[in-house]
Specification:
about 50% helix, 10 strands, alpha+beta, Arc Repressor Mutant, subunit A, 3 domains, Beta-Lactamase, 5-stranded antiparallel sheet, 3-stranded antiparallel sheet, about 375 residues, Enolase-like, domain 1
């Protein structure tokens, strides 16, 4: 892309930047008189018309019809994002909204749901947040709490920050003291073990080690296996209605096509993963525009993605989806800031001593 920007004169760069900005704001083709009047280019409409024609020949602009002004092509948006975009940091109001992503939630899913809603509100785009896969996590802490006759609540905390509660029916009633013994036993042997390694062979080894609690351990072990779920990624979306409000999607069937793929969670998760894996230079944010999208159903859209981590492990992505006419500077600032805030809150929630975290979460669930 550097070769293409080097072929443009500074004047052409200014004109391309102005066209993209104006079209993002108005969704109207941009003509030479508009550029001359609004953007202080110091050029006559005739000179601007010649430059617009040259930019169209470069494939950076296109003309919807002969009497219209120009609009950016996908290549024009790409050049704008890579070379001409100026930073657009969050303003005070947006920063205040961002700060409402906080650790006062009951579990990771609630936090990610809150994150998706706030990302959509700040960016004005549909937001997507991919939750970590539970089966890929490692056990960090297990707590057993009595809840009734021959029942206990199994609280599982993973190294990725997920907290899962599984009601387990026991073959017989156990005292709170017995549950403490069992919990300590499970922690001693399972902390650090990947959830997808909870095998029948491991269960057999446990049974041989402690025969007194054989049946109870078997029930608890089944509960742990159920707590891992199916191992399928989860995608949280917010404010899909923002897509339907975009004028370019008012054509019959177009917004339905886009909303349809949003409902296919695994398809969208695959798109997020492929976009997040792309090289982005020094930036932590990836931008995919129009025909660069991995799915043909999204070729009228752009996707801005940032990953979020706990420690050095990537857990998922925060993203916004909108038309190719999306406000890229704002979208890029938002996903980067939200991902950073989410990492901070995850560290506050799950970077603490595991026993105090497990106890606090247990008390919160009982309240």
């Amino acid at each position: 892309m550097n070769g293409r920007i080097n072929r443009l004169t500074p004047r052409q760069q200014d004109i391309l930047r102005a066209v993209v900005r104006d079209y993002i704001q108005t969704f109207e083709p941009v003509g030479s008189r508009t550029l001359s009047r609004k953007y202080g280019l110091g050029l006559s409409p005739a000179t601007i018309r010649n430059e617009l024609s040259d930019l169209e020949e470069e494939g950076l602009l296109r003309q919807p019809h002969a009497s219209a002004g120009r609009i950016p092509s996908d290549a024009g948006y790409r050049l704008f994002v890579d070379e001409l975009l100026e930073p657009d940091p969050l303003d005070d109001r947006q920063q205040q909204i961002l700060e409402t992503v906080n650790s006062g939630v009951s579990d990771l899913y609630d936090l990610l749901l809150q994150t998706a809603k706030i990302t959509a509100l700040i960016s004005g785009c549909t937001a997507l947040v991919r939750a970590p896969r539970l089966d890929r996590a490692r056990i960090k802490f297990i707590q057993l709490m009595p809840v009734g006759e021959a029942e206990c609540m199994l609280v599982l905390l993973t190294d990725q920050g997920q907290v899962t509660h599984q009601l387990v029916r026991l073959p017989e009633s156990l005292s709170p003291e017995d549950l403490v013994v069992l919990g300590n036993f499970l922690n001693e042997r399972l902390v650090g073990r990947p959830l997808d390694r909870l095998t029948e062979a491991a269960l057999g080894a446990f049974n041989r080690e402690i025969s007194r609690y054989h049946e109870a351990l078997e029930s608890l072990y089944r509960g742990l296996s159920q707590a891992t779920g199916s191992g399928v990624d989860r995608l949280i979306t917010s404010h899909q209605s923002y897509l339907a409000q975009q004028p370019e999607f008012h054509e019959v069937g177009k917004v339905g096509q886009i909303l349809g793929i949003l409902e296919e969670q695994q398809a969208m998760i695959d798109v997020l993963g492929r976009v997040a894996a792309r090289e982005s230079g020094e930036s932590s944010v990836r931008v995919t525009i129009g025909r660069e999208m991995p799915s043909p159903d999204l070729m009228d859209c752009s996707l801005v993605v940032a990953t979020y981590r706990l420690g050095d492990r990537v857990l998922g992505e925060v993203a916004v989806l909108g038309p190719t006419r999306m406000p890229y500077a704002t979208a890029m600032s938002v996903v980067e800031a939200v991902a950073g805030r989410l990492e901070q809150v995850l560290d506050e929630l799950f970077g603490l001593d595991t026993r105090s975290v497990g106890g606090n979460l247990g008390r919160r669930r009982q309240a």
